[in-house]
Amino acid sequence: MALELMRGNEAIAEGAIRAGCRFYAGYPITPQNELFEYMAKRMPQAEGIFLQCESEVAGINMIWGAACTGTRAMTSSSGPGISLMSEGLTTLAAGQLPCVIVDVTRAGPGLGRIAPAQSDYRQVTKGGGHGDYHTIVLGPASTQEMAEHATLAFYLADLYRNPVIILMDGMLGQMMEPVDFDRVKSLPAPAKPWALRGKGDGPRKMIYAAPFDDPGLIQLNDDLTEKYRQIEEKEQRWEEILLEGAELVVVAFGSSARVALDAVQAARAEGLPVGMIRPITLWPFPRKAFSLLRRKVKAFLDVEMNAGQMQEDLERIVGPDLPMHHLGQGGGKIIYPDEVLEEIKKILK
Amino acid sequence: MKKIFGRPESLTDFPYPYCPGCGHGIVQRLVGEAMDQLGIVGRAIGVTSAGCSVRNWKQFACDMTMGLHGRGPAVATGLKRTAPECIIFTYQGDGDMAAIGTGEIVHAASRCERITVIYVNNAVFGATGGQQAPTTLLGQKTTSFPGGRDPRTGGYPLRMAEMLAQVSPESYIVRVSIHDVKHINQAAKATRRAFEVQMNNEGFSLVEYLSMCPTQWKVNPAQALSWVKEKMIPYYPLGDFGTIKGN
């Protein structure tokens, strides 16, 4: 198939349908509306279910129901809606139900505004809802990658029986770029013997997120902790850019990574020893990418459109010995390559 | 000897965790009998809710899942839309459905989702210790309004069956009582009809059961039966409120 020019929001929706998503429940919120409307148009063609839910609270609980029957199910929203989904997210994690949630982040806190921001990083990577749980979080940086992550997200969700969040922002969602769906690798879809379809003549099945009696909930927590450990071991993904000889490493994800890449390439052209790491999985955070770097690198520059949420993860991994700089702020302030380049030069001076 | 009475096959032998005189056991039995009579236990999926009935996933012998507090109708929507061949029911109390779950039940009813809602109204939050529910009667004493429900501070009791009938043009919505044998028999018919409405793809169905909570009403089981008859039924009239009628 030829290249198609698509918005990020549309590429993720088309990617999801091609990945076998057959249930989508959504609620209007900017800047994710194109995803929602694309699903409204395409889902009936794919003989799937599109539902405009009465709230994000209802939507995420519809996802619970659809996921229970073994259907690949998805919802999308933006920060305020993701906050409303928190009770459902923690429960989906506890019930070990696979599903995909897209967060086209807007600038927070509170109602915020629709300008691009990455202020939901902490919310989605650390949980958001109550209890000890994790969602797998993917952070695509291009429209092509969004199409690919839709497939990857459903694959990981099914493989680990865990919710997967794709973290975007208004810029990535609205931006138009060419997409080639032929390049999207198809991934296996496991059988779901646990799905509820009526017991027929067999034993009944239950999907439950609250084993009240001891050791039920303690056992569930142990099982989840072990599952998260395996995910951290096996699923870290990142991109390394120009790291050879780098003394300063820029770390950025999503749209900030696009901006930072321009600056890093410009700096290299001027002979500055700068490289870049782009985390692709935001949880599990790609800590392996940093284990070898520490010996040669003298400083890090964290670039993100928030007050430094990913920086907390970086500091935990890199430790206190190396300087950690931050560029970026919340509230909808877009970062430009010139600013990153200027910061790189300032640090390396 | 021929066995003439026993536990419905649609219920397990897991012991009921309820207080003496509680109505949940009766309602669960009615649901089990209806599933037996209609032969649907093999394709039924139940959705439990938060509250005293939270553990009834152990008592229904069909596939079971859960709904968070009030979210049962949203979960049921996701189940039914993706497994239309299955028979989906939620089991919800008045605290669950008439308080935190009003959004989900109103919209499931307005979409006329082909689900069956088993709604147990005992006019109080039972599991959490007897606080006021949206269905608590005026003057009824609870732990959150110890002086009794005063509409100026605590609002008026919600009549959910009537309210939902207003928004659901394809619906079987009835209110029944379980305070004596005659009424239990009527409730049994209504329960069966509610499932038939779903099986025939006729519309949304909901049965509201006026039920007893002697523990939180601070009365004995016999007094609780009288309380349903004398206090609840005058405010919550029994009847058929939807567009689809009983048979």
Structure description:
The complex is a heterodimer of chains A (349) and B (247). Chain A is an alpha/beta fold and 349 residues long. Chain A has 2 domains: 4-234, Rossmann fold, CATH 3.40.50; 238-348, 3-Layer(aba) Sandwich (Rossmann fold). Chain A has 13 helices and 15 strands. Chain A has helices at residues 8-18, 33-45, 56-68, 79-84, 86-95, 121-126, 143-160, 170-174, 216-234, 254-269, 288-291, 309-318, 337-348; strands spanning 4-7, 23-26, 49-52, 73-77, 99-105, 136-138, 163-169, 176-179, 206-207, 238-241, 248-251, 274-279, 281-283, 299-303, 324-327. The mean pLDDT of chain A is 95. Chain B has one domain (24-240): 3-Layer(aba) Sandwich (Rossmann fold). Chain B contains 9 helices and 7 strands; from the N terminus they run H-E-E-H-E-H-H-E-H-H-E-H-E-H-H-E. Chain A binds chain B through residues 22-23, 25, 49, 51, 53-55, 57-59, 61-69, 71, 73, 87-88, 91, 95, 196-201, 204-210, 212, and chain B through 41-45, 47, 54-55, 57, 61-68, 71, 74-83, 85-87, 103-104, 106-107.
Q: What labels would you give this structure?
A:
heterodimer, A: 349 residues, alpha/beta, Rossmann fold, seven-stranded mixed sheet, 41% helix, 19% strand, B: 247 residues, 9 helices
